[in-house]
Amino acid sequence: MLKGIVVKAYNSYYYIQSGGKIIACNLRGRFKKERFSLLVGDEVTYTLTGPDKGVIEEIRPRRSMLKRPMVANVDQVVLTFAAVNPNINTALVDKFLVIAELSELEIVLCINKIDLSDTDSVAKLAELYEQIGYKVLTVSAKQGLGIHALRLLLFDKITVFAGPSGAGKSTILNAIQPGLELMTGEVSHKIGRGKHTTRFAELLPVTGGGFVVDTPGFSFTEFNDIEEAHLMDYFPDIARIAPTCKFSTCLHYKEPQCGVKQAIASGLISQARYQSYLEILTEIRESKKGY
Ligand SMILES: Nc1nc2c(ncn2[C@@H]2O[C@H](COP(=O)(O)OP(=O)(O)OP(=O)(O)O)[C@@H](O)[C@H]2O)c(=O)[nH]1
Ligand SMILES: [Zn+2]
What we know:
By secondary structure, the protein is α/β, with parallel strands linked by helices. It has helices spanning 29-33, 90-102, 119-132, 147-154, 169-176, 187-190, 195-198, 236-241, 259-265, 271-289; strands at 2-10, 13-18, 21-27, 43-50, 53-59, 65-66, 71-72, 76-82, 106-112, 135-138, 158-162, 203-205, 211-213.
């Protein structure tokens, strides 16, 4: 049986990448009856019905499933921010981190446009997140700095790039894989990535093995699914200290004898991170009130 990976779904065809070739496949009827939705990223077995046509016979169990965009077997997310232009905003970084933690993906923090920023502030920022335990890469897509290290991280993995508009995601992907020719700058909003293309992601192959996902669709509405008491689980620096709080139900808000607040006072947890935590905690509270 031949094996492949679904890289694109379009017009009831599934395009399978298999041994360097793209095969246009249909689903066996029984999958339709089961209303099984095959996703980009799914690993399948298929039989050929023509030189580049086939039928999908079996779907391998999924290792993971990302909801936005809907992609199976995503291994990691590269959260991309510009150091400047637009200036990095740690509150926003922390929000993206929480969403990525929720999805249980490996996380890489990528700080782009270091050609425009001063070395000291980038180093400080990198250190803040490295101390929490995140992998941080500082790059300049424009000058090609750090791109090789990033490329190495993509090997044999399915990687989603997420981050605010203008961070340089498309420019980075073009630097990694020149053939992609993703549109950058303002044009990208109008052509190629219109409304219709956002729902269905496509896997783009990286030379040497691995794929990147072309339409990151992170959404912060997912904060509404988080219970107040669980928010800290998505802040590794806070979760580590939480067992030292006097009360096991401590939300590190106004509770007495809070180990987290002591850790902030002693510099073990950054004040900025705590502010981000409180901001999201408040958002969760407000959203629950609405019901
Ligand atoms: N100076 C500098 N400019 C960069 C760098 N990377 C990207 N840019 C510029 O930043 C702007 C935004 O880059 P894009 O790649 O379109 O950003 P994006 O994250 O894909 O944006 P969206 O498509 O809106 O999500 C473009 O004008 C790029 O030329 C860099 O490393 N240095
Ligand atoms: Zn506490």
